[in-house]
Structures are given as C-alpha cells and as structure tokens.
Amino acid sequence: MEFGLRKSRDTNPLIIATLALVVLGMGISYVTWHNLKQQRETINEHMFLSSQVILRGIETSLLREVRGHQVMGHGMMHGRAEIEKRKASIRTQIVELLTDLVNQSEVDFLSLYTQDGKLILTVADKGLEYPEIPAYGWEALQKTGEWQAFYSKNKQNIFVAGLRSKRSLGQIATIDSSLPPPPGGMGTPYLVVGLDASRHLDQFGKFRSTAMYQTLYVLLVAVFLWGLAIAYMRRRDMGKRLHRLERFHSRLLDTMPEGLLTLDKDGLILAANPASEAILRQNREGTLIGRFWQKLPLKSVPQEELQGHFPVGTSERTWVQYDYDGRCLEVLMLPIPPSEKNPDEDGERLVLVRDRTDIKALEDDLAEVRQLAAIGRLAASLAHEIRNPLSALRGFAQLFAEKLKGRQPEQQYAEIMVREADRLNKVVSDLLFLSRPRRPELMPVDMRMLCADIQNLTARDFELKGAELHMELSPDLALSADMDMLKQALLNLVINSLNALPEPDDSEQDEQGDGPEKRAGKVEILTEQRENAVMVAVRDNGHGMSEDDRAHALEAFFTSRKEGTGLGLAIVHRIMRAHGGQVSILSHTGEPSGTEVQLIFPVRVQNNESRDGVDENA
C-alpha cells in the first residue's frame, strides 16, 4: 500500500526552494550584468572625457598657431620670402606637435575634417589603419557636435571621438599650400581623435571574467544547497511516510472489525488485534498472546489444518466455519512467506477470524422470507382459479338467502355463506394487488369527500361496535394521489383500528376503583400540511401494539388476530411506496393506549412525479 502526503504540506517547501533558487539565480545574474554594464559605461565615459580633453587641447594649440600666422601676415615689414619661411616653420611645428602627441600618449591618430567631411590633415601611429567615420557619425557631429564609437580590427581596439571645432580653425588650410582650401571655405571644421582602448578593455575583460566566475561560484553553491534542501525534504517526507504507514497499520489492526492473529509454526499465538481478543477471548481472563491456537474451544476443527505446515507460495484460501461457544465463526489461514533476513520465520501463519452469528441469523431470516414470498406468489397464482368458482358460490348463496327468507336457521346459514364468500373474495383481491401492483395515477384529492365515502362504507360496522368515527381535516390541503389507492389504504387502516377497539361489553376499572367504567371506542382521521410533506393519519384508542408486533406490522401475512389475513398493512405499505411516501406507526399499550398510523406523502411526488410502481422486494 502506498501513502502520499498532503500536497499543501509536501509540495510547498519544494516549490519555495525551487522559486528561491530561481530568484537567487536571476538576482545574481542581474546584479552581475548591471555591474558589467556600469563598468563598461564608466570606461566609455572615461575614454570620452579623455578624448574631449585632448581635442580641446589640440584645438587651443592649433588656434594659437593660426592666430600667430594671421598676425604675421598683416605685418608689412616682412618680405614674401620671410612669409614663406614662416609658414614652413608653423607647419613643421603643427606636425611635430601632433606627432609628439601621438607618439607619447595613448592617441593613435588625429584628423581634421572640413564641414562636408573632407580630410584636411591627419597624423597617425605607424602601421595603424585608422577607421573612416560612418554616415551616422557625421550625422551625429552635425546635430550635436559630438560623437564617439569603439572600433576593433586586427586586434586593435580604438576609441574614436569627434568634436565640432571653431570656425577660425578652418584658416589652417592657408598655412600649408599643399592643403588647398575647399570651395566656399572650410566652414566649421571637425577634429577627430582615436585613443588606444586596449588597456581599458583588457581591464574590463578581467573584471568581467572575475564577475562571471564569482557569479558561477555563487550559483553552484546555491544549487548545492538547494540539492541538500531537496534531499533533506525527501528524507523528511520518507520519514513522514514511514511514520504514517506505521500509524496506519497500527490503527488498521486496532480498528478492523475482523480478528487478525499471527501464529508460529507450532501454533503459538504471537500477535492479536483487539477484534480477535473480543471475538475469541469473550469473558475469559488473560490475553490470547502466548496461548496455542489448538487449545481454543473450536468445534469441528480439522486437526491437519491446525497442526499442518503450509509450504511457501501455497495456501488454502477458503473460509471455514466453526462453532465457538454457541457462535458461528469463520476462519481463514494463510501462510506468511519468510524474509531473506529471517529464515527462521518459515512456517508462520496469518489467521483471519470473523463473527458471522448475526449474518447467519439474517441468512436464516432471508430464507424464511423467500419461502413466504414463494407461498405468496403461489397464492396469487391460485387466486385467479379461486375467484371464478367463488363468484358462482356467492351468487347461489345469495339466491338461497332470498329463497329461504323467513325460514330459520336456513336463512342465517345462507347469509353466513354470503359474508364468508365476500371475505374470501377480499383476501383474493388483496393477494392479487400484492402480486401485481399498478402505477398510481396522481390527481388532486378532496379529503372531505373521500372521508365521507369511508364513513358511509363503515357506518354499519361502527354502529355494531358502538364506536365513533371522527375527522379532523386541514383546510386547503395540497395532496395529490391515486384516489382509489388512497381510499383502499385508508379503508384498511380504519377497519384495522375498528377491530382493535374493545368490544361493547368490555369494561375497565376507573382510577378510584369505584366500579366499572365503559370506554367508548373512537377512530380519528387526521390530516396535516407540513413544510415538505402532507400527513394523513388514522388514530384509535384501542389496546395498542407491542413493540414486536409494531416491528413486523408491515410484513405480508403477519397478523396478531386469529381471523386476520396479515395483508391489510402490507397493502398500505405497498401503496405508500408506489407514491414515494412512508408509513409510520406510533403505538402505546399503557394508559392512554392506542395506535396511530401516519401516511406521509412527500411534496415532490405530489407536484411533479410518481413512482413507476412499487418495489417488488418490499
């Protein structure tokens, strides 16, 4: 048998641990990515600021040279040769300045461009292939006056930055004759510098590697701890399952209704549950454990079953009945296969014991009921054969009563024959109804009219009995039933109540013992509208019914009167089951005595449905 723990207790820790691991991994990854991003942005910002400082310094130096050249050009005391010599000197100074800057710093190249992107002057490190400015770079320079980008080519990492310079710097083209000024002038020139970013990127690469290793290490530690947590939870769950299994086995053995015992190969009782103690020990003192199974007072027990040894893998899986102190017990013996670790357990047996005393009594009662049912079916089948000659006999008896009118005792004998034929015909009709019940046809019932018919039918009987029939009917009673079947049921109940009333000459002592006091018989028909049902009852003040009679009153052929047939209440029960209702009997044998039979019709049956007939097994 497998056991599972509640999901709310089992899966929650696992889900929480998994979510914690996922959140931790995502958090660490995000922090690492954010740190790397900030580090790269810091490098970009540092390179950009450095490039701006260099570009502004170069711009200042170049503007100084241009202004010096302009001052010299306006002096008239110098000749043309002197001016050309001065230009060559300035050009040499500019080239030397830029070259020294490239050779002695991280600057890889310096370039000067016109407004429309034509190169005016460039100084680059030896062997360097400086990149060309792309179209989006020129667009950024024209819009914002600044631009920056990283270039990687042939293992060279260059940070390129551009700056929009002052318009006066465009006069540098007049210094060197090899640099012809562009048509329409230079406009606003642009300075572009390229810085060596290898050292910074190498440091960034080392930082990135360190951060990745640290992140991986933390994640591995987290996964390891997560695995330990999962292993711990699984071990804890296994412990809980084992504990629950042990507790279940203990509770199962303690609460199971059947007895369970374990015997060794000699028949010694090794273990017994409370049910076996209750079944086998009864009023005996002591316990079953330690006793021998063979010494229990089991009658008709085969000795070979008690002392025999079942080989492993075979068993007699048959329940055997025994008599034990007047009770019927069933015993089943099964061999227990020995385990590999304990071969000494070979020969042990498992014994199941159950008390079938009550079940056997029910089986006997069922056999009797089946026998009675067979008799009832036989009587129903014979009813058709009886009714035809019975009708002829009644007709002739009625004819004789008319012919012999005034002649005694012949007329009396003929009238007795007619009454007995009517009584026998009623018995036949009741048998036919029990054997072939019909489906009720529901319709609204007028209880006042129905009770008036019953009163007319039984008026002579009540007069002879010296009893009275009273009716307490609720107004606006919402009752739907089969009129004929309800009339038959009420008529049977009224006749039964009338027969239960004392005879007119019966008398009882009054409470003071002063003398006899006549008690008038009374039968009442009551109705009551309830919330979910309608109750129709017949009550009398007769002698009442005993508990045993009341328990069997609804059974067919059961009667406490010598002249009764035992079919009246059985027919009432059939009719109520056909309507989906119930029959309730309330009776008292003390003072005041009397019996009340209640017919309860459910509302749902009245409103919209009826049963398809009665239960044939009722």
TrEMBL record:
Residues 381-605 form the Histidine kinase domain. The keyword Transmembrane applies. It comes from Desulfobaculum bizertense DSM 18034. The chain crosses the membrane at residues 12-33, 211-233. It comes from the Bacteria. It is an enzyme of class 2 (transferase). Pfam families: HATPase_c, HisKA, PAS_8. Keywords: ATP-binding, Kinase, Membrane, Nucleotide-binding, Phosphoprotein, Transferase, Transmembrane, Transmembrane helix, Two-component regulatory system. One of its GO terms (molecular function) is phosphorelay sensor kinase activity. Gene3D superfamilies: 1.10.287.130, Histidine kinase-like ATPase, C-terminal domain, PAS domain. InterPro entries: HATPase_C_sf, HATPase_dom, His_kinase_dom, HisK_dim/P_dom, HisK_dim/P_sf, PAS, PAS-like_dom_sf, Sig_transdc_His_kin-like_C. Its EC number is 2.7.13.3. This is histidine kinase. It catalyses: ATP + protein L-histidine = ADP + protein N-phospho-L-histidine.
